[in-house]
Design brief:
22 strands, 4% helix, Quinoprotein_ADH-like_sf, PQQ_rpt_dom, Pyrrolo-quinoline quinone repeat domain-containing protein, 326 residues, Thrombin, subunit H, single chain, 4-stranded antiparallel sheet, WD40/YVTN_repeat-like_dom_sf, 37% strand
């Protein structure tokens, strides 16, 4: 059940995962610091299907992405009243191999013109945000030779200029793919074999060199982060193999840093956190830990400030902004 309680919280658009700045922060003021006795007043509620997708809001439309039976549903409601605006339904056969929820994992991305969704099977869909009519669609799993992920597709799309940037996870070098957001045409694709082959497995005993087999899973569950670092727009993607920095306009790789568990049955799932010119990455799997990088002025190099493999517990001094994520 989706329930909306505080009408004041509807004032600011929340058009994508983690909000307008993709960092979980809001400019709203005057919000309650504690619930009133008996809880907040319920404005409306709606029964919905399965999935891990969060609702998105733009221009008074609240868009849901969920699953009922064998149907994948994208629907728009009036955010204040829950009155239906449009509904798009498509078939789905996805079954989670570990028995978890079979619904979509990714959150809708909304603009003034379009609604973008990325289904658990890899169906990338663009709808007219006002009418719900299809604009374009890509079947990424088939088109980009994507190995089956452990828990389906889980990294939400992001937008930079006229590009919709998606962690597709295709072999051999289509971990990240950028599409023209209006047409769905591929603008660039990069990261994968050529990024990691022969590079050291940082943090692994002896740091052996990566030997690419061609069957590796490439996508993670961490949504890419867009940031301005040293005055330069940068795309930071924590893929299954590790962190990759790319130029968002061209897809050119700036640098990479291996970061994953030694056990195969593992994933990366925490979005990179940017503070100034530094990038923080963390993982919960099997002692992988975390690291903080200081990005060089050229955008192509970095200095490792610390990692959990190299610092004492007493040295864990974090900026408060990073501390809340760790």
């Amino acid at each position: 059940v989706l329930a909306i309680g505080l009408a004041k919280a509807l004032a600011e658009d929340w058009p994508q995962l983690l909000g307008p700045r993709a960092d979980g922060t809001s400019t709203e003021v005057g919000l309650l610091s504690a619930w009133p006795s008996g809880g907040p007043k319920v404005i409306w509620k709606k029964q919905i299907g399965t999935g891990y997708s969060a609702p998105s809001i733009c221009d008074g439309r609240l868009v849901l992405f969920h699953r009922v039976g064998n149907e994948q549903i994208v629907e728009a409601l009036d955010a204040k009243t829950a009155k239906p605006i449009w509904r798009h339904v498509s078939p789905t056969r996805y079954r989670d191999p570990f028995g978890y929820n079979n619904g979509p994992r990714c959150t809708p991305l909304l603009t003034k013109k379009h609604c973008f969704t990325f289904g658990a099977e890899g169906a990338l869909l663009c709808l007219d945000v006002k009418t719900g009519k299809p604009v374009w669609q890509r079947k990424t799993a088939e088109e980009f030779q994507v190995p089956e992920a452990f828990f389906g597709v889980g990294a939400s799309p992001v937008i930079e200029g006229n590009l919709l940037i998606v962690m597709v996870g295709g072999q051999p070098n289509s971990t990240i793919v950028a599409f023209n957001k209006d047409t769905g045409k591929v603008a660039w694709q990069n990261a994968g074999r050529d990024t990691w082959q022969g590079k050291p497995s940082t943090g692994w005993p002896g740091e052996p060199l990566v030997r690419w087999r061609g069957t590796e899973k490439l996508a993670s569950y961490a949504t890419p982060t867009l940031a301005t670092i040293h005055g330069r727009r940068t795309l930071l993607s924590l893929t299954r193999q590790g962190l990759v920095s790319l130029e968002p306009k061209t897809g050119k790789v700036n640098f990479s840093r291996w970061f994953r568990a030694r056990i195969n049955e593992s994933v990366n799932a925490a979005n990179p956190i940017v503070l100034g010119n530094r990038v923080f990455c963390s993982a919960a799997y099997y002692g992988v830990g975390s690291f903080l990088l200081d990005i060089g002025r050229d955008g192509k190099s970095f200095t490792e400030v610390w990692s959990t493999n190299k610092r004492r517990k007493a040295d864990r001094r974090l900026d408060p902004v990073l501390g809340i994520h760790w």
